[in-house]
Amino acid sequence: MQLNEIKPGLQYTLLSQTGPVHAPLFVMSVEVNGQVFEGSGPTKKKAKLHAAEKALRSFVQFPNASEAHLAMGRTLSVHTDFTSDQADFPDTLFNGFETPDRVESFCMGSNGDESLSSSGDLSLSASPVPASLAQPPLPGPPPFPPPSGKNPVMILNELRPGLKYDFLSESGESHAKSFVMSVVVDGQFFEGSGRNKKLAKARAAQSALATIFNLHLDQTPSRQPVPSEGLQLHLPQVLADAVSRLVLGKFSDLTDNFSSPHARRKVLAGVVMTTGTDVKDAKVISVSTGTKCINGEYMSDRGLALNDCHAEIIARRSLLRFLYAQLELYLNSKEDQKSSIFQKSERGGFRLKDTVQFHLYISTSPCGDARIFSPHEPVLEEPSDRHPNRKARGQLRTKIESGEGTIPVRSNASIQTWDGVLQGERLLTMSCSDKIARWNVVGTQGSLLSIFVEPVYFSSIILGSLYHGDHLSRAMYQRISNIEDLPPLYTLNKPLLSGISNAEARQPGKAPNFSVNWTVGDSALEVINATTGKDELGRPSRLCAPPLAADQDHQAHHLPRVQAGG
């Protein structure tokens, strides 16, 4: 150890050993220059290393911890993924005390006044970054590789010493906690979330580095957000993490902090609305769970049963209720028109106000084409899919009755008939990937609202796990990119696609047979038996077509219609 080289003969003392036999916690201490430093760890050796680290930080007169880290000779791989929950920063630091590899010096800005030395250390005498670099409308400096041996907090501390990190919140189920930390850099507010505070702090620092200094520590193409082609009012990762937290937070509120029996789920989905550039003003519109479809014998020819209880499909149905309510609000009075998300369209009918955007959150990739990949396949050097024409790619797929997963649609498949299903033929339901791809063309508003409202598209699709940019973008819109001759007002929507910083863990086990839904304004969750498509008492869901159609009939006489002509 380098501390022993500087101060030979130091004595380490075992202060305590706590915890169960299979997971002990040791506390060691060492005295240096009259000061006692303590360190803890799962082994005595790790505890001694922690104590030595604290001692060395104090003993070696460096202005910040990152220089002490460099002096200790600890290096991290330049390819370390600081967004992965597998990266536990304290453990990755203790990998021996080798001399760091030399790296090429580089300039961080166009003026070259902030550069790395050949040892990989940032020049501490560098002048501050010009304020103009912190302005979002202006292009940032060119990206540069992260210095070897440093995590985001260390790098940011060298660029902006003395930053203070604040703990904002703690949420999530007991086995999947999420902590949120924040930091203010150059007047800009950055948040990060993770399964512990240290990881959340690192992600807040990483967000600041990416935004202000254009320094991206995770260069894996498949994990990067895919930007939208439309109006983008928010930073992708900040938006994605905020939407995820809002949906999880609302679900926690609705299930008594996940203690309700109806908190059981495999997939959670929700829709969040933003009305400007500040994510803090975002509002949860709907929350839902579910992974199953109706049993064929319970289908209703009057629309009194929910055929598809997959979470993302239910979340979009709940969004429809909100859209109807907002139209009704617009018709109430001139005062209420200001509160509605709709405004009159020059084409007749209504359209969303310019700053209103809807964001779909799904806790995992939607079933179908977006999920047909190996999440731990080796990272390819090419950013794109090496086998885009493989038969398994881009196919239409269907869910299967009384099961999970999807199967490809055969080109020579027989037509599914109502009486055939009632007689025992397996009911096939369109996969979620295919349905969302359809929404990216026709909108989410449905055929009834299309008479009165211009298409309503999702501005972003955010996944809580199993995010792969190449596969998700193909499933959501690239496989139909050659679509032509769409009617006026309709387009191929290409929303922002993103994963979240604190990815959800895989949830093995049998999926529950129920689905829950909630729309803003509801007092509680509605529980639906996914097998029958109705509630526990056999009554139609509040999301069924007839109630929605009744709302539409009530409003139809008062509403101008969208003119389809150019």
From TrEMBL:
Residues 109-135 have a biased composition (Low complexity). Pfam families: A_deamin, dsrm. Gene3D superfamilies: 3.30.160.20. Signal peptide: none annotated. Keywords: Hydrolase, Metal-binding, mRNA processing, Nucleus, Repeat, RNA-binding, Zinc. GO terms for cellular component: cytoplasm; nucleolus. This is Double-stranded RNA-specific editase 1. The lineage of its organism: Eukaryota, Metazoa, Chordata, Craniata, Vertebrata.
